[in-house]
DNA sequence: GCAGCTATTATAACCAGGTACTAATAGTAT
DNA sequence: ATACTATTAGTACCTGGTTATAATAGCTGC
């Protein structure tokens, strides 16, 4: 009977996957010890499961984190700006992924939604250095994992003398408003800045 | 004359450091090609500069990113809460590190300062699920790389009927106030939540 | 000019943690 | 008995190094 002998193999495959997921730094030798099979079996199993060798796993992790580090400057703006009319309006899209949600509920953490809006409010201001001075925000409904958050910013006034701009941002999922915020942005012309925008 | 022959070595050391910093995935063989010296010289140089071999570098990067992934759940609260009196007040400390600042200016990005305050405002509410409904915030002065931001939250009112709490948060660097915020937190008793707190 | 020094290069043995391939063995199904 | 799968064993080879030992080149001080 095939099932009798095949089950242990599949079980071992699951165990092996779990062990490597739990500790990606485990060697085949250690897996041999824990699974009580020969090192060849471990390697055949990895082959079948398309799990790369330890060094390859470490390399992939290192590359992933290195790419993340390199792309950090891009994150100075949270969300992808898809339309921008300086000193007038702007639109950005931000997809809520696993790293943005409150793990227990799958609800996006507030500061990510805020960050998208703040980024856009700063970006829409046509100035070298623009920093958020104040913000008055309202989370209208929760944003969930997988949802695409579309933020629209409108510049309401620019008072040239004191270098302040008022920007309103509304964020939507589909046609539901999820967030609204009124930002006051300092359009710093170089001197002492007030805050860390995005 | 010693300086004549020693200079090229120090220059090469600088070049080598720079090359590895630019691309940590470079092999000694490739360094040999770029520096026009033997592979032994490259290895002696790495020894002198205490730069680990490629595989060790990748392992360190992988471990660092893996630790970061594992500690993510801890980041559900931004900042270390050092004092907490539920429904009354709380204090948290958050050190501004390189990953939190606007790279051009070394000024902390607004959403990190906001996130610390928001986290604390949510944490101080003695409820299973607490979500930010609205926030009225003001960035008083910029917070810079290396500064320790101390947030103090005070619960101002709890209206049991509609499950709302008002929380004030003030953040300081030393004795300078850098941020203030008025939060309205929903103390969700299980039904439809409004926002993604922290 | 020659010992003494540093810097560099060469050579060889060895290592971890594998891959790739071949072969043997055990169990079981038909 | 035959065929098939699963497992184990063994060997050669690979990358990207370490470690140690020795040879060579270039200059220095005297």
Automatic annotation (TrEMBL), chains A, B:
SUPFAM superfamilies: Thioesterase/thiol ester dehydrase-isomerase (SSF54637). The keyword DNA-binding applies. Keywords: DNA-binding, Fatty acid biosynthesis, Fatty acid metabolism, Lipid biosynthesis, Lipid metabolism, Repressor, Transcription, Transcription regulation. Pfam families: 4HBT. Residues 119-174 form the Thioesterase domain. InterPro entries: HotDog_dom_sf, Thioestr_dom, Transcription_factor_FapR, WH-like_DNA-bd_sf. Signal peptide: none annotated. Belongs to the FapR family. Transcriptional factor involved in regulation of membrane lipid biosynthesis by repressing genes involved in fatty acid and phospholipid metabolism. This is Transcription factor FapR.
């Amino acid at each position: 009977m095939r099932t009798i002998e095949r089950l242990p193999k599949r079980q071992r495959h699951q165990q092996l996957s779990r062990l490597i997921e739990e500790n990606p730094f485990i060697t085949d030798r250690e897996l041999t010890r824990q699974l009580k099979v020969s090192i060849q079996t471990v390697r055949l199993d990895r082959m079948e499961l398309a799990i790369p060798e330890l060094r390859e796993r470490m390399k992939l992790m290192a590359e992933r984190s290195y790419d993340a580090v390199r792309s950090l400057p891009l994150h100075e703006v949270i969300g992808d700006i898809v339309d921008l009319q300086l000193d007038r309006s702007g639109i950005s899209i931000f997809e809520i992924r696993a790293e943005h949600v409150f793990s227990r509920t799958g609800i996006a953490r507030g500061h990510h939604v805020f960050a998208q809006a703040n980024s856009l409010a700063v970006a829409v201001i046509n100035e070298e250095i623009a920093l958020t001075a104040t913000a008055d925000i309202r989370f209208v409904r929760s944003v969930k994992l997988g949802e695409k958050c579309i933020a629209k910013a409108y510049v309401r006034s620019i008072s040239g003398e004191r270098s302040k701009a008022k920007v309103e941002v509304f964020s939507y999922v589909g046609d539901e408003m999820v967030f609204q915020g009124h930002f006051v942005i300092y359009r710093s012309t170089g001197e002492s800045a007030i805050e860390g925008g995005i």
